[in-house]
Amino acid sequence: MSQANAQALSPQSAAAAPPRQRRQTSDRAIAWLFITPTIVLLVVMNIFPLFYSLYLSFNDYSVIGSEPPKWVALDNYEKILTSERQRYWHNFTVTGRYALLSVGLQLILGFGLAMLLREKFRGSGLITTLILIPMMLSPVVVGLFWKLIFDPSKGFFNYLIYTNPRGGAEWLSDPTLGLWSIVIVDVWMWSPFVMLLCLSGLSAIPDYLYEAAAIDRASAWFQFRRITLPQVMPLLLIAVLFRTIEAFKAFDVVMGLTGGGPGDTTETVAVRLYSEAFLGKFRTGESSALAYIVLIIIIAISNLYIRALNRAREG
Amino acid sequence: MLKKSGSVFILVAMILTLAIGAGGVTAAPKAQVTELTIFWAQWPPADYLQEIGNRYEAETGIKVNVVQEPWGSFYDVMAAEWAAKGDAYDMVVGDSQWLGQGAEQGHYLELTDFMVENGIHETVTPATLQFYGEFPAGSGRYWAYPTEGDAVGWAYRKDRLEDPEEMAAFEAEYGYPLAVPETWDQLRDIAEFFYRPDENVYGVGVYTQKDYDGMIMGYENVMFSWGVDWWGEGNQVIGVVNSEEAVEALEFYKELYGFAPPGTNNAFYTEMNSVFVNGQATMIMNYFAFLPDLLNPEVNPYADVTGYFAGPAGPYGDRYTALGGQGMSVLNYISDERKQASLDFIKWFASDEVQQQWADVGGYTCNIAVLESEEFLTNTPYNAAFADSMTFVKDFWNIPAYGELLEPAQRYINGYVVGNVGTAKEALDNMAIEQHEILVEAGVLEE
Q: CB–CB of B83 and A178 under 8 A?
């Protein structure tokens, strides 16, 4: 011990100046220190905009206008649900149809692919990786690529399905085929995601269940229905939940492919929301109200799925 | 006690220091402007303006920065700056549709006195002054200096239209010689004649873009030339935009789209040039600002056989073309010194000499003297068509509600032309009703 230290600890010096009690930082304080930046970030980036947009949904307000928000109570909601109901209903119908077709086909294809890739074979790892590539791409890029692929004179899509490609369908300008084009692209892009979830569910099924079923001479269909499907069901429902929520937010692929056209035949709710909130209109109040209506619908659908998921788990 | 007195002394000293400092600031001479910032969309004319700005710096020592923003977010950034009453930019080269908003909401400095006193309003063509600078229409109040004139023009394949065999076949079929179309009906016949899907050759490329304003920028060329306008007496739209002539015009535009290359269902300026340089389209409509690309043989393999013409006339004697381009405005939220420096720049820029330089570097001037000069007319193959077009341009609404008026127009017209939704009459009737409601809500029209 050095002389100075010894002096500092001597009884005389202690009597002259009472020792300062060193303040200890509690574990709780340290925990707060660590989580405070995250909480601040969450409040600033998520919680505040969420509640502020809720407030704006009850106001007549344009973000580019010089007027402050003007309280109009439920007028924006009333407008969407009554006077402009017909057009908004059209947007919801398009979105619903798109969600149903797209999620349904993704389930069938994704599950089918997972069943095929469940058995390990030479190159199965490579094939799985290749199948996953579409979901790694940017949706905007995918939209623009597929726009070229669907092009009746330059794209190869019509070459694949028609003997005379130039006489083939104009996928993006036909009001009925327009939505199907978006569904095809979404299925191409996101079926691998469903496949991945199903694959993880399938690989978790213990072999002894199948062995026991085989001893009981259960048919392949019986094994699929009674073992495979119930075991994979929870993951399948999670996939459906994620994809349905995404389908309700469908924007980038739609904008990249059709821009909502022709007319408004492929205008999903998200595209409508964008055109109300931006594109020269800047109806911030009304678009906030629409966003909340979409949020409520998504929460309601999610709840239905989660209940089904819980039932599947319990069953 | 002493400690307290000391604190009070320090506080008083601080207040005095701040007061003296503040007094010093107010007493200081006015800050000299050394830099001007101009906001514009990201495209070649903005580079040309920077080049002109560099010459201004060489002459005056005041640096000019042209800040460029991609077209997709150009309006959004400016609108956000207006909402914040920001002073990041001194001037903006804004779209003609912004005039109403800029003037009515106080974002733009009124330039009437400045332009009249300096005679600037007489140096540009009346049509460009009206559509790029004046608000309200016919009021004689100016808010912008017509900077980049632009309009929809046409490019065509000379090798097809001047081919002797094609000319003979065309004349045999239609009873008049094949030449650059002077009327929309002639343009339609040529488009039909060259519509040969089996040879991957098509008649005409027209705007159909749904996402923003492309569809309308295409259709209104025909609509104006059929004698129809976007508004009538007292800003009425019902009976105007859905008149018999309007229905005829829309049906005609749809017919033209029938001769277009496949895949042009959501097409604007990029797609127009694309179907031309790949050899599919015989004629395309496009803004003059995008025609320079067609001069480049590396981009356009048919560059040496590409000709240009101005919009044709309609069946009832009207001839109009859709306006593009922008005017330069001074923003109202900057200091008086910066406003004066901006006006000085515009005065310099508007001079015949600098406008000649502007045209030489590639800008589309609206200056009458330059437009009429032989040098300008022969400078590029399309300059003559451009100068011609600048005398018969027309524009869409430029009131603050223009974005709302645009949306139903885009939706119904695109739906009918591209998607075969309903009839032309139904599309225009529905559009008229929605536009009427928007105008009533905006206070522009009485119920």
A: no
Tell if the CB–CB gap between A280 and B414 is shorter than 8 Å.
no
What does the pLDDT average to over B146-152?
95
For chain B, which residues make up each domain, given as ranges? 35-150+323-394, 152-322+399-441
* DSSP label of B134: B
Let me know if A109 is exposed, middle or buried by CB neighbors in 10 A (0-12, 13-18, 19+).
Answer: middle
pLDDT for A161-209, tens place per residue?
887 777 788 899 998 899 999 999 999 999 999 999 999 999 999 999 9
Domain at B35-150+323-394: CATH architecture: 3-Layer(aba) Sandwich (3.40)
Chain A residues touching chain B at CB-CB below 8 Å: 63-66, 150-155, 166, 170, 172-175, 178, 255, 258-265, 275, 278-282
Which residue out of A173, A253, A283 would a mutagenesis test of the B interface target, given it has the greatest number of B Cβ atoms within 10 Å? Answer: A173
Q: Which residues of A touch B83 (CB under 8 A)?
A: 63-66
A146 Cα to chain B: minimum distance (Å):
12
Residue B171: the pLDDT is 97
d(CA B86, CA B331): 9
Strand, helix or coil for residue B147: strand
Q: Tell me what pLDDT residue A21 has.
A: 60
Q: A258 to each of A98, A200, A251, B54, B164, how far by Cα in Å?
A: 14, 35, 11, 42, 41
Report the SS3 class of residue B346.
helix
Instruction: Using the predicted structure, report yes or no on whether residue A83 has a pLDDT greater than 90.
Output: no
User: Is B10's pLDDT higher than 70?
Assistant: no
What phi, psi does B148 have (nearest 5°)?
-110, 100
Q: What percent of chain A has pLDDT over 90?
A: 70
User: Which architecture characterizes domain B152-322+399-441 according to CATH?
Assistant: 3-Layer(aba) Sandwich (3.40)
**Rounded distance between C-alpha atoms, residue A288 and residue A63, angstroms:** 11
Residue of B nearest to A168 (CA): B262
> Mean pLDDT across the stretch B208-214?
87
- Looking at residue A312, what is its pLDDT? 78
Asked whether the CA dihedral A204, A208, A211, A217 is positive or negative, the reply is negative
Render pLDDT for B161-179 as a digit per residue (tens, 0 to 9): 999 999 999 999 999 999 9
pLDDT(B26) > 80:
no
Pairing of strands A70-71, B91-95: unpaired
Which pLDDT score, from 0 to 100, does residue A215 have?
93
**Residue in chain A nearest B413 by alpha carbon:** A263
Q: How many contacts, defined by CB atoms under 8 Å, are there between A and B?
A: 102
**How far from B330 is each of A12, A169, B59, B114, CA to CA, in Å?**
78, 51, 21, 12
Nearest CA in chain B to A271: B211
Structural domains in chain A plus CATH codes: 83-314 (1.10.3720.10)
Could you give the ipTM of this predicted complex? 0.79
8 Å CB contact of B105 and A261: no
Confidence bin at B83 (pLDDT 50/70/90): confident
Burial class (CB in 10 A: 0-12, 13-18, 19+), B190: buried
